[in-house]
């Protein structure tokens, strides 16, 4: 491997530092873990499938209840 010049080495180090800072942050860490779980196939294990379906079901139910509450409030204000 040929030695790099100083500016290329500095650019590589800055890039590495920024990637490390992103991966250590909350959202960055979650995205990094999600990417590697999907890449390795672990994301499709029953643990994550059941958790995902449960979360999706909860979002749907809460959306329906919220929309029902808004409709009830709207019709209640009409009288």
Secondary-structure map:
Layout: H1 6-24, H2 26-40, H3 46-78
Class based on secondary structure composition and strand pairing? mainly alpha
Percent strand equals under 5%
Give me the count of strands: 0
Please work out how many helical segments DSSP would assign. Answer: 3
Largest sheet: none
- The global form is elongated
Helix share of residues? over 70%
What is the N-to-C succession of helices and strands?
HHH
What is the CA–CA distance across the termini? 80 Å
Radius of gyration (CA) equals 24 Å
Q: What's the pLDDT, averaged over the residues?
A: 85
> Runs with pLDDT <50, length 5+?
none
What does this structure look like?
With about 80 residues, the protein is mostly helical. The chain has a domain at about 45-79. It is about 85% helix and about 0% strand. It has 3 helices and no strands. The protein has helices at about 5-25, 25-40, 45-79. Helix 1 (about 5-25) packs across helix 2. The chain starts with 5 loop residues before the first helix and ends with a helix. The model has no long low-confidence stretch (mean pLDDT about 85).
